[in-house]
Known about the structure:
Oligomer: single chain
Shape: elongated
Number of helices: 10
Radius of gyration: 31 Å
Number of strands: 12
Strand content: 15-25%
Amino acid sequence: MAPRSGGAGPRQPWQSAHALLVLPVALILVITVVDLRTPSNVHLGPALVIAPALTPSFAGPRTTAGVGALAVAAQVFIGIHHGGIGTSNHIVQIITLTVLVVLTVLYSVLRERRQAQLAQVRTVAEAAQHVLMWPLPEQIGPLRIASLYLAAEDEAQIGGDLYAATVSDGSVRLLIGDVRGKGLPAIGEAALLLGSFRESAHRHIPLAELANRLNQSVTRYAADLETPEEEGERFATALLVEIPDRDPVTRMTSCGHPPPLLLSPGHAVTVPSLHPSPPLGVHGGTEHTLDVFSFEPGDTLLLYTDGVVEARDEHGRFYPLADRVARWTDDSPEALIHHLRRDLLAHAGGSLGDDAALIAIHRTTSDRRRHHHHGREDTTSQG
Length: 383
């Protein structure tokens, strides 16, 4: 949906800072007026330090210094009207306030530098994450695609879940997977799996052979990097999907990954019966089964990771994905993902305990009849 034009737009940061600046300035004025109206033995001047102390929370060192100078000037003004600034009491108050203002400005300088460093680190991290996890195209041939990634780690955009898509000789191949672990520590293994998929998926090889290559990559990675304490703990689940442009079917090979949901018009949701092999990196010589299912025009295939269905609410109940998604079977992929994101986060109380990924794939056109079968994959099945 395009943004609406005209009207009041979002407030800029400098506008918000200028609005908040009213608070310390008003505080200085109130304290000054009240102090001038109180007896000379009552001293409210020391409270002026509150104003420059508040300023770094929304403004930089220069503004903080300006507010501090105004506070010191107010203290001098109070001193003049209460017996002169030459009295020992007023001299001590002015000097103390000046020292505190200087310390506050120094704190503001250090805080601003720290924020600049964090912003630079965040920018580099986001750039690296975008290079690793390429955004999926919205349209590939007859397929409309929408995706969602929710990282469990704060400030992270990706973690242990992963997905990718490529075009291979009249079909689209997709990978969705989940490496052991979550958040930033799992990114290295996710990068390895994505790189291996992108290197091999565009070639015209059967899904079983593609799964074997991914398995070999994860196994080599585990052998090189895992410690004795981690033996057998480095693995990844994966679902490989191939969708021909013209045949109304989808071919899948599952390596320990949850099965997708097939959404059909009229609030129909079915779960394809897959024959999964063990996760990648668990066994070296595993045979992989090819499962083939109907995927007609108007249907939507929903791929997801276990972080979605294992999200718990405050009572410890898992997210009922199949039940919830039945409400939106007639929606576009973009609307479906939007609804699921909002509903999933509401179920989990606003944050997830594990990374979660979703891909909605909608077939728009086809002219073949419905198919439904499964069997072992061979080279001819990819033709």
